[in-house]
């Protein structure tokens, strides 16, 4: 497949789409290391880096879940730095799943920490529920660093409807968020993304129509029950504009002596299922 010369890539969306085309994949590798499933942190680190290496050519990007690293304290954050450094060396865009959200200078500090600091990722998940002004510091730092923000809109958990589907005078809360993100996009893919759960398969086509210029991050593939065959409506006519994320179903596809073989096989299966769904 054709892909852009590196010097022509000017924003996060172009970088992500280039990798999707070059490697023919719409899959995002989630890395959620569980210390309790390993002998020690050194064993966990080797496992995580081995999974990353085994699956790198099958995925469009990588999504470390920051909470699992924070839970291990300083050693966990140091591990996160090494995971991100390894991913960068492989040319993988990094979406840090930290779901940060705050206002003014505090939001700016979070943004600098996760998009321009030691733990730097290419993109960051962000909560909009302090108001749309709370997104501005994150978006500025992301844009300045050719990165992106993925804003929680319609999340994959069962309880998401408690707030996200509440009706306002302008439609559901999730719809209001979606409309604002499309406005922020400026009419083209770039630094704006939305988190839309793959578990809401019946809604994906409507969210794609509502946000035609917003990148969609689709968590919930695999262990949470979402099926690759149902996700085609989230993608645009070129098969771009969205990525489906699987974490435990790949990283811990097996916990016996064939972990890397199982992880790669799981990633390849999901990649192929997504591609088939889009082709059909």
Could you outline the blueprint of secondary structure elements for this entry?
Layout: H1 12-23, E1 27-31, H2 41-55, E2 61-64, H3 66-70, H4 74-89, E3 95-100, H5 104-115, E4 123-126, H6 136-144, E5 148-154, H7 161-164, E6 167-168, E7 171-172, H8 173-185, E8 192-196, H9 204-210, E9 215-219, E10 242-246, H10 248-251, H11 259-279
Parallel strand pairs: 1-2, 1-10, 3-4, 4-5, 5-8, 8-9, 9-10
Antiparallel strand pairs: 6-7
Helix pairs in contact: 2-4, 2-11, 5-6
Strand-residue proportion: 15-25%
Class computed from helices, strands and strand pairing: alpha/beta
Provide a count of the helices: 11
Instruction: Encode the helix/strand succession as letters.
Output: HEHEHHEHEHEHEEHEHEEHH
- What's the CATH class label? Alpha Beta
The whole-angstrom Rg is: 18 Å
Q: What is the count of structural domains?
A: 1
Overall geometry: globular
Q: Tell me what the CATH architecture is.
A: Alpha-Beta Barrel
Beta strand count: 10
The parts where pLDDT drops under 50 for at least 5 residues are 1-8
And the CATH topology?
A: TIM Barrel
Largest sheet strand order: 2-1-10-9-8-5-4-3
């Amino acid at each position: 497949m054709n892909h852009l010369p590196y010097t022509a890539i000017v924003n996060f969306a172009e970088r992500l789409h280039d990798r999707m085309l070059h490697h023919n994949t719409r899959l995002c590798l989630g890395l959620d290391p569980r210390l309790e499933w390993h002998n020690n942190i050194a064993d966990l680190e080797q496992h995580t880096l081995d999974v990353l290496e085994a699956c790198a050519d099958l995925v469009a990007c990588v999504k470390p879940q920051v909470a699992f690293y924070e839970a291990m304290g300083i050693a966990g954050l140091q591990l996160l730095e090494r995971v991100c450094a390894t991913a960068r060396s492989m040319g993988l865009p990094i979406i840090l799943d930290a779901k940060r959200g705050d206002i003014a200078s505090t939001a700016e500090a979070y943004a600098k920490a996760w998009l321009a600091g030691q733990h730097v990722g290419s993109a960051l998940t962000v909560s909009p529920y302090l108001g749309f002004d709370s997104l501005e510091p994150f978006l500025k730092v992301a844009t300045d660093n050719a990165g992106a923000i993925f804003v929680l809109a319609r999340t994959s958990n069962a309880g998401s409807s408690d707030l996200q589907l509440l009706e306002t005078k302008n439609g559901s809360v999730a719809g209001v968020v979606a409309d604002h993100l499309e406005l922020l996009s400026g009419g083209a893919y770039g630094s704006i993304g939305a988190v839309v759960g793959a578990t809401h398969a019946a809604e994906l086509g409507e969210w794609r129509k509502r946000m035609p210029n917003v990148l969609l991050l689709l968590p919930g593939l695999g262990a949470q029950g979402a099926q690759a065959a149902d996700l085609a409506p989230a993608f645009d006519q070129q098969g771009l504009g969205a990525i489906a994320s699987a974490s435990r179903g790949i990283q811990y596809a097996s916990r016996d002596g064939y972990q890397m073989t199982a992880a790669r096989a799981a990633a390849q299966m999901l990649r192929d299922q997504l591609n088939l769904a889009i082709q059909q």
